[in-house]
Design goal:
Layout: H1 11-28, H2 34-48, H3 51-63, H4 68-72, H5 85-98, H6 109-116, H7 121-143
């Protein structure tokens, strides 16, 4: 499968991605744990059917020391015993925040309350922002039919 256009080589797309990448860097540097950031990116990418981002973030997580077992269980996190309560709360927000169109009312108050038990205000702001950004990346890659499988950790700097 080939991408519909060379998005990564397009000047206009490059300008857009520069801003998305800058926003993502703010989140990487935030106090929201990187492990949680990668789990959230993976789960949103799975839900959105973004093979490119799923490939990228599972490989980045592995390179950062995440286990294959945990990565294999992200899609079924509710039944898996390998995630902390904080990770579960973030994954729940990730699912609800990604499926806004499917979930009348968006993120329910009880899901938000569970997340607020584990994260401070800055971390919650980072979590919301992270979901917005990964969903934007997912949409770009899904619409463009960006192929998955060739990513290597660090290839985008």
């Amino acid at each position: 499968m080939d991408a519909r256009l060379n998005y990564f080589g397009n000047a206009l797309a490059g300008k857009v991605m520069k801003h998305l990448n800058s926003a993502n860097k703010v989140l990487v540097d935030s106090t929201l744990p990187l492990t949680i950031q990668e789990l959230v990116k993976i789960r949103a990418s799975q839900i959105n059917g973004c093979g490119f981002c799923t490939d990228m973030h599972t490989k980045d997580a592995l390179a950062a020391g995440e286990t294959e077992q945990r990565l294999s269980l992200v899609a079924v996190w509710r039944e898996a015993k390998v995630f902390t309560d904080a990770e579960r709360a973030a994954l729940e927000i990730a699912e609800q925040g990604t499926r806004i169109a499917d979930a009348s009312g968006g993120v329910p108050d009880d899901a938000w309350a569970r997340a607020a038990e584990h994260f401070d205000e800055d971390q919650l702001a980072a979590l919301i922002s992270l979901l917005a950004i990964i969903n934007a990346y997912n949409r770009v890659n899904v619409i463009n039919q960006q192929p998955a499988g060739d990513y290597t950790p660090g290839m985008f700097g």
